[in-house]
Amino acid sequence: MPTPPPPDVPASPEVAEIERALHRITYLSTRARQHERLMALAGVPMDRAAVALLRRMADAEPMRPGELAARLGVEASHVTRTVQQLEKSGHVTRVPDPDDRRAQRIELTDAGREAIARIRETGVRGMQAALAHWSPEDLRQLATLFHRMVDDFLAHATDEEPDRAPTP
Question: Ranges for the HTH marR-type domain (predicted)?
């Protein structure tokens, strides 16, 4: 992996523009009003913390709450509260950890899988509408570059935090 430039070297204008664009898209996608609209369209009344947890779990095997907290980058107490809410609503369940009988893992229920599928489908439809005028080639190129960027961000984060495993 290439060595990062020294801190006194200014970022290239291209990198500065990428950071600006990422900030804008992050802001737009995390606004409370946008979240509420997405949940209403998906028919899933759920807060942002619950959706983040379900999204992470949908892409992984059942995991312990502490591992889930580490992957989400939050305190374990936040995961515990969210898991309790999601258990009450029937979206997750606790199962024995096959590696340690004293521990439990959290897994999605059928209702949890259905909820996250509806949320993702609604989000994809919104994105499709916003990008409808883009060519298929532009969309392929953007997807390729986004995945490449995320992979590089994850590799960089892993290099900075050797005690934490990368998240897919």
Answer: 15-151
pTM more than 0.70: yes
Question: Do 100 and 147 share a structural domain?
Answer: no
Burial class (CB in 10 A: 0-12, 13-18, 19+), 115: buried
| Co-location of 122 and 148 in the same domain | no
Does residue 100 sit in the same domain as residue 61?
A: yes
Q: Which residue ranges in the chain fall short of pLDDT 50?
A: 162-168
Whether 167 and 113 share a structural domain: no
Which tokens go with 162?
Answer: 């050797």
DSSP, residue by residue, 117-154: HHHHHHHHHHHHHHTTTS-HHHHHHHHHHHHHHHHHHH
